[in-house]
Amino acid sequence: MAKADIEVQQPMHMHPEDFEEEDPEEVLDESADPLEESGHTVDSSDDEIDESVAEDMARFEESFVGIGKRYRLINRIGEGTFSTVYKAEDLEYNNYDNRWDVDERERRKWSSPSGRKRGSRRPHYVAIKKIYVTSSPIRIFNELELLRDLKNGDSVCPLITAFRHQDQVVAILPYYHHHDFRDYYRDMTISEMRLYMKSLFTALRAVHQNKILHRDVKPTNFLYNPQHSRGVLVDFGLAEREGTDWHKCVCTESLEERRYQVAHSVYMQNQQAGHQTTSYPKNDTRNSRRANRAGTRGFRAPEVLLKCTQQNTSIDMWSAGVILLTLLTRRFPFFHSADDIDALLEITTIFGRKKMRETAFLHGQVFETNVPSYSEHGHTLEKIILWCTGRTSSDKGAPKKELSDEEKEAVAFLYRLLECDSAKRITADEALHHPFITKSYEENEADQDMVDLVAA
Ligand SMILES: Nc1ncnc2c1ncn2[C@@H]1O[C@H](COP(=O)(O)OP(=O)(O)O)[C@@H](O)[C@H]1O
Ligand SMILES: [Mg+2]
């Protein structure tokens, strides 16, 4: 009985009337801490299961009627903000068409017919994502629908199928062997960073070509295997189609229009009335500005923090920039803010007040701070990397330490990602053509030549 892949094998019974209106404030203020997700990988210790995990799995099998017949639960591999993920063996693998299985496809390409037969008896693994029942139906539906739309790329985790039992929904995904970011981010060479970023941009290009914003790009949502230099983007729980809930933001208007709007703002009226620049109107009758701010603290682009109401796929490129900054500085998490204001100030520390005023102005906002320690022009990324990697000295006579040429190339690229003006930020497709990334092809060819020489 062959069945098409990525098809809901037992249709989920979801009807529009199931969708309850969510509290809009909750939807708009999705916030996760970068350290909240365990993101840990237990590939090497599948046999060592904690007692509490075993109990949790038994409870799940008991409550989700029938799941045990289809899948043998092996271990709990992740606990995110919105779900628990288990590794499981797919017991009915051979009854279905499994075009999603990249590893099997690769293996078949290279193995003999007898090897293929033997291979079909190998265990096949899946990841079962148990979405917390507190997630709204509309959000669960959104995640599954976007995953299904993105099913054809190898760099985005496809949806194999999904099941619902009462209020519990589970998504069945291919299982990806990957390493915990915390195990390798301190030791990556620049060449390895090129490969990591190339893999991430390949995934983002596929997502962005479909006009989808991932919204939560961060290491725990990019499952990377350093040995194969291959990564897969997961977790479309906060993703959305570009244009959803867009309202005009002045960032899409001309400079004149923007100037006009700021000139007629409450802030300007206050200033003209002789109030201090940092004063607030006593009776502010304006509606508060609302925009989708879903994402993870420390990875949000400035326009998200500034509540731009026309956010686009470039927000993911900023988050990718934060990952590269993390790799270059060897600091994780690099940003660690308590809230959005804190996050804006963290960015101000690097880019300075002037850049933040300009960025705020792009979105029709006014940026003011009375904290004296923020400098007007901020610091260069070169300096920040040197600081974070202990290459600065308070001894004035000591020789000046510099970044290596490769690091300088990385920094030039990083400036294109951490570009505060989203309209000027590099796109995923452009990033894949940037010399920092294309050099990985040259390096790969050089490696190949070495292998050929040895083989000759
Ligand atoms: N397909 C998969 N293969 C292997 N591990 C996975 C897979 N999907 C998720 N995980 C693990 O589970 C964690 C949480 O999954 P994720 O989809 O990010 O859920 P959440 O929405 O709760 O953050 C991931 O960080 C990862 O460690
Ligand atoms: Mg996640």
Automatic annotation (TrEMBL):
Matching InterPro entries: Kinase-like_dom_sf, Prot_kinase_dom, Ser/Thr_kinase_AS
Classification via SUPFAM superfamilies: Protein kinase-like (PK-like) (SSF56112)
Compositional bias segments (type: Acidic residues): 18-36
PROSITE patterns: PROTEIN_KINASE_DOM, PROTEIN_KINASE_ST
Domain of life: Eukaryota
Alphabetized UniProt keyword annotations: ATP-binding, Kinase, Nucleotide-binding, Serine/threonine-protein kinase, Transferase
Annotated Protein kinase domain residues: 71-437
GO biological process: mitotic DNA damage checkpoint signaling
GO CC, alphabetical: nucleus
One Gene Ontology MF term: ATP binding
Residues of the signal peptide: none
Region of interest (Disordered), ranges: 1-48, 271-294
Enzyme Commission number, as recorded: 2.7.11.1
Compositionally biased region (Polar residues): 271-282
Protein name (record): non-specific serine/threonine protein kinase
Organism whose genome encodes this protein: Periconia macrospinosa
Taxon lineage: Eukaryota, Fungi, Dikarya, Ascomycota, Pezizomycotina
